[in-house]
Design goal:
Structural class: alpha/beta
Distance between the termini: 39 Å
Strand order of the largest sheet: 3-11-8-7-6-5-4
CATH architecture of the largest domain: Alpha-Beta Barrel
Order of helices and strands: EEEHEHEHHEHEHEEEHEHHHHH
Oligomer: single chain
Number of strands: 11
CATH topology of the largest domain: TIM Barrel
Number of helices: 12
Strand content: 5-15%
């Protein structure tokens, strides 16, 4: 069975949310292997000269507060992506300072210009990631009129960041305001499989969320555990491989793609979460000075 965003057919309704640091190509490929319907990159400037590695055919998320570079960037990578996304949800201090992400919601004219350029530059699906704000529903309606194929909504304000209660009712209100698919984001994956998780002041399973929304995104709850997608996409709650074995898979891919030591060490820290002796492992990882050091540390204490 396939699920569609625009003309893009997905095998699962559970997606990997855009995240700047965790979503390197090796991590994205592991998530896809575990059953993730679509991976997203972290946010990327269309003015970036860095070579993108997109072997997982991800959604490539752009950010910015002007149309500069968007058309040429899309033309450069269009054949390598599954879809294009525009970030209107990042609540970081950098986004505040540069006035992009969630801090662009007041500039509807520029949002319209950017989305029109994106829509005109590609036949691939275009999505937008939003946060709760006074203008979020108006932006969603504007995006639909322009021809955007789906809306992602994280129903916390930029002031909340990633803490406090998600306003599930706001997300439902936004969903009802448009006729295109809506992707729900916010605390999904806090528990595995169909067990309940507290979302919007009420216990909800992922299955229940998918009755209200077309797709869901998992972000922070996938960090260090790509297999979280297994229980949600294949009905398998058992963790088939443990963190250490999963990190070995990550490391093979990291070496294949030549990921920098700093990134490998960062991901190793993430994979220790929930492991026996995790604190001691992290203490050792702090002292690691090479990928070989990391490999040795994560290969011990079997």
């Amino acid at each position: 069975m396939g699920y569609k965003i625009g003309k893009l057919v997905l095998k699962s309704r559970v997606l990997l949310a855009p995240m700047l640091e965790p979503n390197d190509v090796a991590f994205r490929l592991l998530c896809k292997k575990a059953g993730c319907g679509l991976t997203y990159t972290g946010m990327v400037s269309p003015l970036s000269k860095e070579k993108m590695v997109l072997d997982d055919k991800p959604g490539l998320q752009l950010f910015g507060n002007s149309v500069r570079g968007i058309k040429s960037f899309i033309e450069k990578y269009d054949s390598e992506v599954g879809l294009w996304d525009f970030n209107l949800g990042c609540p970081s201090k950098l986004s505040r300072r540069l006035e992009h992400g969630a801090f662009m919601h007041g500039d509807l004219a520029m949002i319209e210009k950017i989305l029109k350029v994106m829509r005109g530059a590609t036949k691939k699906p275009v999505t937008v990631k939003l946060r709760k704000s006074e203008n979020a529903i108006e932006i969603a309606k504007l995006a639909e009129r322009i021809g955007v194929d789906a809306i992602g909504i994280h129903a916390r304000t930029f002031g909340q960041g990633y803490s406090g209660d998600v306003d599930y009712d706001f997300a439902l209100k936004l969903k009802k305001s448009v006729g295109i698919p809506v992707i729900y984001s916010g605390d999904v994956g806090a528990s595995r499989g169909n067990r309940k998780q507290v979302i919007g002041n009420r216990d909800r399973t992922t299955k229940e969320i998918l009755k209200d929304f077309d797709f869901v995104m998992i972000g922070r709850n996938a960090i260090g555990k790509p297999r979280v997608f297994q229980g949600m996409t294949r009905g398998n709650r058992k963790q088939i491989i443990d963190n250490r074995l999963e990190f070995r898979e990550y490391l093979k891919l990291a070496k294949k793609y030549g990921l920098f030591f700093r990134q490998v060490k960062f991901q190793a820290m993430n994979f220790t979460k929930g492991m026996l002796g995790a604190r001691r492992l992290r203490e050792k990882l702090v002292l690691a000075r090479s990928v070989s050091d990391v490999e040795g540390i994560m290969g011990k204490n079997k």
